[in-house]
């Protein structure tokens, strides 16, 4: 009786909403039987997005997008609210998962050349989605409205400010005024929770529509290059002959991988916790060390390593040209071989891109170009003594900030050359000239170091890498 | 049922076609008007900060006697036009130095490379940036690293025993097309 009632009720609803007519055919549409595990990354990206939407809505229940109170609400979510820390962690690791899955999905599609006819617009909509996802990741980092957030948005405004002609307009639009302040966070909040998610929803809708229209592509076949004249007909024939329904024959793999992804997101948020908050968002505080989240560290490194004359063009050119090249890729090559073995340049591009990303990210973490403000004084074990002129010279190396940039025996920054063996390489005169006048990327210290201090520093440096102190008494006179 | 189908173009008299074309145009135009009416106030609201003229206000950063002749000290002051909910985010910072009994020099704390907060290191008399390694001398000129321009100088005045700084927008390094 009750079964009958449920069936009748469902039939009534189904008749009105058309679930069996519209949704079921979509779920059981035929997909190639050889796609298997290669095609799980798109659905994993979607799953990560669902995590972001749900956790984001929950966080918005307590998050206050308003100046100083934003920081307090973040502290409350992290330290006091029940399950707040896990939720914030899920949102953070969910963002990482979404960026990662979107990029892996794109690389897979690129390697299999799925963007070729007739799926050019699948790729193009995916590229737009990727850039909006990166926009979400960036604005999300700023919504962690601490010292890092304030200075990150300042850097973003400065980068936008480099745009010819409209630079200041763009910068002030980003900041919501002439300086970073209360209007900035509300602006980024609106972008992060309304504008960009709406674009992602629309983009996913279009992406799915195009998948339904053109079907899931088969695995590349070396003997079957894409010919726009015959492709569609041949695909339809093959899919009806060998295809399997997406639900459940293919989807179970998506479900397994997505379960794993959500499990990792949850596990990370429980065991690693959300990212720690920096000091409050005070734009007048200098005790900040702005760093982007991991997905933008490579770009941070690029901006540090570039020659200054190229900088503006790279700041503006990398995102613009990157988008244009990716977006129009299918229009450049929409037919021919799809198999990676026939497209060595594609494989080379991916390997080069991955290695460059990895190396630059490691550089970004280490940031050897930055002065090490926290460096300690050289210990006696490195100096060789704890008293006398040598020890005074070593102390001056710290006081004068030399160690911020120069490493001696494992102590010091890496912005300048290592000085552990400098006594073997430069003479007294060389050192005096270099310290007084500066050199390649080194400030001149002539106006901030006295003669006696200079002699102590030089005497100390001349002992680096040398077994014994020079015995020639003339060499120690100024 | 068939009489409910719209007539095919060949069945229509000429005035029917004209009427349909007219109604199509009216609907499209009205749609555009609706769009403008909805969007214009919003777009104006969002873009307003771009067109706002920067406010320059003098902010007191301390008593004259608080500053000794010597190195730079960090001072904080309020933005010229903070929103009511800004709280601590309405603050701005500057490095200020009393160069003599009557002369002060102040710089914005923003590095001219990409805006990070520079730190004054007293002994070597240098400003250093933690982000990309920009270094400046005490007169604000670039000593090392990627900054393309010197530190941004702020106006300072002394009035009735108080030291005041004139507020400025965040200094931007612009690209000039020549």
Automatic annotation (TrEMBL), chain A:
Domain Cytochrome b/b6 C-terminal region profile: 236-368
Places the protein is found: Membrane
GO cellular component: a single term: membrane
Residues annotated as domain Cytochrome c: 388-465
GO molecular function, one term: heme binding
Biological process (GO), any one: respiratory electron transport chain
Name of the protein described by the UniProt record: Menaquinol-cytochrome c reductase cytochrome b subunit
Organism: Gimesia alba
This protein's encoding gene: qcrB
Automatic annotation (TrEMBL), chain B:
Cellular component aspect of the GO annotation: membrane
Coiled coil stretches, renumbered: none
GO molecular function annotations of the record: 2 iron, 2 sulfur cluster binding; metal ion binding
Cell cycle in keyword set: no
Name recorded for this polypeptide: Cytochrome b6-f complex iron-sulfur subunit
Domain Rieske: 59-165
Membrane-spanning segments: 26-48
One Pfam family here: Rieske
Cofactor(s) essential for the protein: [2Fe-2S] cluster
Classification lineage: Bacteria, Pseudomonadati, Planctomycetota, Planctomycetia, Planctomycetales
Region forming the signal peptide: none
Entry keywords, A to Z: 2Fe-2S, Disulfide bond, Iron, Iron-sulfur, Membrane, Metal-binding, Transmembrane, Transmembrane helix
């Amino acid at each position: 009786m009750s079964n009958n009632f449920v069936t009748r009720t469902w039939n009534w609803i189904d008749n009105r909403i058309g679930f069996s007519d519209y949704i079921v055919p979509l779920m059981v549409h035929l997909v190639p039987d050889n796609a298997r595990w290669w095609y799980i990354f798109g659905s994993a990206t979607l799953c990560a997005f669902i995590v972001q939407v749900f956790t984001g809505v929950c966080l918005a229940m307590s998050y206050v997008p308003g100046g100083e109170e934003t920081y307090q609400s973040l502290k409350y979510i992290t330290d006091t609210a029940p399950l707040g820390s896990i939720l914030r962690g899920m949102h953070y690791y969910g963002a990482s998962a979404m960026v990662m899955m979107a990029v892996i999905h794109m690389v897979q599609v690129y390697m299999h050349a799925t963007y070729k006819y007739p799926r050019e617009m699948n790729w193009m909509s995916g590229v737009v989605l990727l850039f909006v996802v990166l926009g979400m990741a960036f604005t999300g980092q700023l919504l962690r409205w601490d010292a890092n957030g304030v200075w990150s948005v300042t850097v973003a405004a400065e980068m936008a400010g480099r745009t010819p002609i409209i630079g200041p307009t763009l910068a002030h639009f980003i900041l919501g005024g002439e300086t970073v302040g209360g209007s900035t966070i509300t602006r980024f909040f609106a972008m992060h929770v309304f504008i960009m998610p709406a674009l992602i929803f629309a983009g996913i809708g279009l992406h799915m529509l195009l998948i339904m229209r053109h079907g899931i592509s088969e695995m590349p076949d070396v003997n079957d290059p894409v010919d726009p004249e015959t492709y569609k007909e041949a695909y339809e024939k093959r899919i009806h002959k060998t295809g399997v329904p997406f639900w459940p024959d293919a989807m179970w793999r998506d479900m397994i991988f997505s379960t794993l992804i959500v499990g990792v997101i949850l596990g990370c948020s429980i065991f690693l916790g959300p990212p720690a908050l920096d000091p409050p968002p005070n734009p007048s505080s200098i005790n900040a060390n702005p760093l982007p989240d991991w997905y933008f560290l490579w770009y941070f490194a690029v901006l540090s390593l570039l020659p200054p004359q190229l900088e503006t063009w790279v700041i503006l050119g990398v995102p613009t040209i990157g988008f244009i090249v990716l977006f129009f890729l299918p229009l450049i090559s929409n037919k021919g071989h799809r198999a990676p073995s026939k497209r060595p340049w594609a494989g080379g591009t991916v390997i080069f891109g991955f290695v460059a990303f990895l190396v630059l990210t490691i550089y970004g973490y280490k940031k050897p170009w930055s002065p090490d403000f926290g460096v300690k004084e050289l210990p006696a074990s490195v100096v060789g003594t704890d008293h006398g002129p040598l020890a005074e010279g070593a102390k001056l190396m710290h006081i004068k900030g030399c160690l911020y940039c120069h490493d001696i025996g494992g102590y010091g920054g890496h912005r300048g050359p290592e000085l552990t063996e400098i006594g073997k390489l430069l003479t007294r005169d060389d050192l005096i000239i270099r310290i007084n006048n500066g050199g390649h990327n080194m400030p001149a210290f002539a106006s901030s170091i006295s003669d006696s201090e200079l002699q102590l520093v030089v005497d100390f440096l001349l002992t680096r890498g040398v077994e014994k102190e020079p015995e020639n008494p003339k060499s120690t006179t100024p | 049922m068939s009489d409910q189908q719209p007539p095919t173009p060949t069945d229509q008299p000429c005035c029917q076609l004209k009427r349909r074309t007219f109604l199509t145009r009216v609907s499209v135009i009205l749609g555009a008007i609706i769009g403008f009416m909805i969007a214009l106030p919003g777009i104006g609201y969002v873009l307003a900060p771009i067109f706002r003229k920067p406010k320059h206000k003098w902010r007191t950063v301390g008593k004259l006697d608080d500053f000794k002749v010597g190195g730079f000290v960090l001072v904080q002051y309020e933005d010229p036009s903070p929103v009511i909910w800004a709280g601590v985010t309405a603050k701005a910072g500057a490095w200020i130095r009393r160069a003599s009994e009557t002369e002060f020099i102040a710089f914005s704390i923003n590095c001219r490379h990409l805006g990070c907060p520079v730190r004054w290191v007293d002994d070597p008399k240098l400003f250093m940036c933690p982000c990309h390694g920009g270094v400046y001398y005490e007169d604000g000129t670039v000593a090392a690293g990627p900054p393309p321009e010197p530190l941004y100088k702020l106006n300072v005045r002394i009035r009735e025993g108080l030291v005041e700084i004139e507020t400025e927008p965040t200094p931007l390094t612009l690209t000039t097309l020549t």
